[in-house]
Amino acid sequence: MESLTAIKINGYTHVPYVSPRYDKDEMLERSQAFYQWMDSRRSVREFSSEPVTKEVIENIIKTASTAPSGAHKQPWTFCAISNQELKKKIRIAAEKEEVETYTNRMSDRWRNDLAPLATDANKPFIEEAPWIIVACKRVYEHEEAVKHNNYYVNESIGIASGMLIAAIHNAGLVTLTHTPSPMNFLTKMLDRPSNERAFLLLPVGYPKQPSYVPDLERKPLEEVSVFYE
Ligand code: IYR
């Protein structure tokens, strides 16, 4: 077979891409196996302090950064923190916001909705997990002192964060999407530039043993999909 070569479109190089192809049975089996694997993921709120190698965290971040993004701007920075002192400072600041949130910012309905998850303003996992990753979105880029907004920034960082969570699960580790609000204290503490905003805080590590999660069900396919055939 003739091997394909690069072509030019609008003066830009496009290279041949061959996507993997599976026969029908293998496709069905892979889709089923991946669903079951992803369905075994749970958000975990209690972490062991057992260390995780930096290289694993690097691979997880590289995976997240394969996400599609608006105009391929990749408008994200993943801050990975293992420094114990910094984690402690972040925990204290996050808990301060959370106390305010749980006592004054949340409606009764919101508090009731969270009751099955057993969350509260205490966030020991920020200090106890070996790593925390703060996913930051980059709202704009500077080019010669001019600000250029990035595109679909929330969609892009949301997709990348989903892929980060999948990569964490794939490594046999657990995480939690923590959203201390407001989060500007994080951008300051991490000394991030003015074009970056913290989006999610994710502790990464092993669950504390024994580990418990709420007895939740996921919505069945019929409730989360409509097919138009
Ligand atoms: N940000 C708080 C509160 C919280 C809100 C929702 I919606 C959750 O699903 C879980 C928690 C916290 O992280 O505790």
Q: Could you give the topology of this structure?
A:
Layout: E1 7-9, E2 12-14, H1 24-39, H2 54-64, E3 76-81, H3 84-105, H4 108-114, H5 125-128, E4 131-138, E5 140-143, E6 146-149, H6 153-170, E7 174-175, H7 184-189, E8 196-205, H8 221-224
Antiparallel strand pairs: 1-2, 3-4, 4-8, 5-6, 7-8
Helix pairs in contact: 2-6
Bound molecules: 3-iodo-tyrosine (IYR).
Could you explain the architecture of this structure?
Residues 40-206 form the Nitroreductase domain. InterPro entries: Nitroreductase, Nitroreductase-like, Nitroreductase/BluB. Keywords: Flavoprotein, FMN, Oxidoreductase. It holds the Pfam family Nitroreductase. This is Nitroreductase family protein. With 229 residues, the chain is α+β, with helices and mostly antiparallel strands. 38% of the residues lie in helices and 17% in strands. The chain is built from eight helices and eight strands, in the order E-E-H-H-E-H-H-H-E-E-E-H-E-H-E-H. The strands form three sheets. A four-stranded antiparallel β-sheet has the order 3-4-8-7. The longest helix has 22 residues, at 84-105. The model has no long low-confidence stretch (mean pLDDT 97).
